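Supplementary Methods, section 5.1.

A reviewer requested that the exact input to the structure prediction be made available. We therefore reproduce it here, unchanged from the version used in the analyses.
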Amino acid sequence: MQARGIVHAETTGTIMQVDGAHWTAAMYGRERQLLMHVVGTATEGDINSVMKSMDDFWNHTFSEAGTHSWSVRGDLLDDILAEKKPARCVELGTYCGYSALRIARTLPEDGFLVTIDIDPLFAAIATKIIEYAGVSHKVKVLMGEVDTLSDKIAAHFSAKSKGKADFVLCDHSKDKMVPDLKLLEKVGVNGPGTVIMGDTTVYPGERGIGSQDSLLSFFVQNPQYTITKHVGTQEEGRGGITVSEWVHLP
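The structure derived from this sequence is encoded token-by-token as follows.
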């Protein structure tokens, strides 16, 4: 059977030691190793400790490749969250939950984040990491794609707010960013006042699929959006981070 576009996180490896008494010969990918590292080194319930543990793991795994782009993205995300103070957020592309934690730590007590990932393993690992960090009451992890779950996302917002997101982070497949934003707009999750941040950087370990300038072009061509910031993160303009805000009244 052909794979349905799902990123397979794990590869067959040699026998590895899990802890002092247990070994495994099972499939054991880097994302599962990340979860084990977080549980083994971070303080449960301390979101900053969990994020530091994740940073340490990825810096070691990729020998600090991509650190500059990641720092630029993290600083920009923090600046936006501090300025806009969003309470209702969406993240497209959960992966292992790092950006979800970064958003969750700034949310008010009644704030919430809905985050979605196509890969079942990533969604499961992110869920456990978010629980371990102590913010599962603020973060809902969905497994699947926006084109089949847009109504569910909208229903979650309608149940807890006026139906519209304050902030959307696009951090998934480059070729899905524009179609998924259109779907969220159609169901009323995006609207006047929504701030959207899209990252088209290809980080170590990722596959660059799809047009990386389509998101920027989408914002330029649609007058309801005003681009407030664009930062190039790779040579020859191959990737960047764009922040745009829907400012026109309906």
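Strands lie at 16-17, 23-24, 88-92, 112-117, 139-143, 167-170, 195-199, 225-232, 240-246. These observations are discussed further in the main text.
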